[in-house]
Input
Amino acid sequence: MLSVSKGGSMKQIPVDQSLSIAELTADPYPTYRRLRAECPLLDVPAIGRIMVTKAAHTKHIKEHPELFSSDDPSTPMERAFQAKTLMRRDGADHMRLRRAMQPAFTARHIREVWKPLFAEVVAAYVDRLPTDRPVDLFGELTAPVAARCLAHLLGLTNASDDDLIFWSQALIDGAGNFGWQPGPFEVSDRANDQMQACFDTARDAKLRTPDESVMSVQLHSDDPIDWADMISNLKIAIGGGINEPRDAALTAVYGILSNPDQHRALVTGEVSWNVAMEEAIRWVAPIQATSRLVKADTSIDGYFVPAGRVLLVSKASANRDEDVFEDGERFNIFREKKPHQAFGNGPHFCMGTHIARMLIGDLLLPRLFATFPSIQLDPARPVEWRGFGFRGPICLSVLLAP
Ligand code: HEM
Output
């Protein structure tokens, strides 16, 4: 239920006492659609934040870090990661940590080092899929592929796919634990202990034998950051580098298979697989929302936004904003090309953007659909979606052969 009280020349942000985390986790999109139409900012006590749902506002907030800081003291992320990561820092402090990883993400590295290596991983993992039973692509393809590619990128090939998948999920569940329940933090603490052991072993190896990985470029920099910061960078990359490509690829496969005309246009080459990848993350952004702390009293769209409040900036909602996208609720690779916000905006723009595009658009989707031309959704097991802070299919069962 919405309550609106007006005072002074600026509008007061309505408060919704009834909106729950459970409702948002099941499906936040009907709420976002209603808010975009009725009131673009909403104070939601259940998450302790003000939701921001219009594309122009979310972009403005991300592009003005001097007014909207990433250093949100109320976020569960710091507790989950046992570190104040670069995602929660601003200005020079943030840039120094970001720059430490940058040499592993250059266009040349992506083209000459990661793409050939990732192509081998994708081929091996696609080709081993069974054709005599339904396959859940979540557990059998997209999560392990993303994990193995990330192991190479980060220089953590001493970790198994299962290790990395567990760590990534534990960090994300902890970072999204807006209700501050003890359970998710117990799991993330266990993951942190395991990661620490893995990082220590990998560091010794990379000190002896440098390579192109994130671990190695951080260690061998001319002006290295502290080991604790290198670790927190690696944790951010683990948190962001598995679940997001996993969910993006699953969303793309689901969108393609549930729209036969679009499927046809992709396999005939009329539309590129990269377009399908981009449309998938516009349609269901894997990172749905991020927090920003308001540094000084300000206003957005005539609403008074006081210093000290935390905004929940919804890329998920921005990416379906009627002011930008026609019929944004629909997966449609034929739509007019417009910039989406699934990789963020401003100084924290996703570092893995080009890696993710290459992995999913250049390699994974083309290989999967070329290897299994009869692939179809499993009629016996419909797709299930979940997530509020992060969102994607939690199961995508397909039949690979007729
Ligand atoms: C489709 C896949 C992906 C999506 C949708 C995605 C999305 C995002 C978003 C929205 C942010 C910014 C959050 C904010 O504004 O606060 C971000 C940050 C980041 N992402 Fe990604 N990501 C993806 C894949 C990856 C991959 C594969 C990596 C590789 C390691 C990665 C590494 C990072 C890092 C390091 C940051 C932090 C940047 C900073 O704070 O300066 N991401 N990602």
Observations:
- The two ends are 49 Å apart (CA to CA).
- The mean pLDDT is 95.
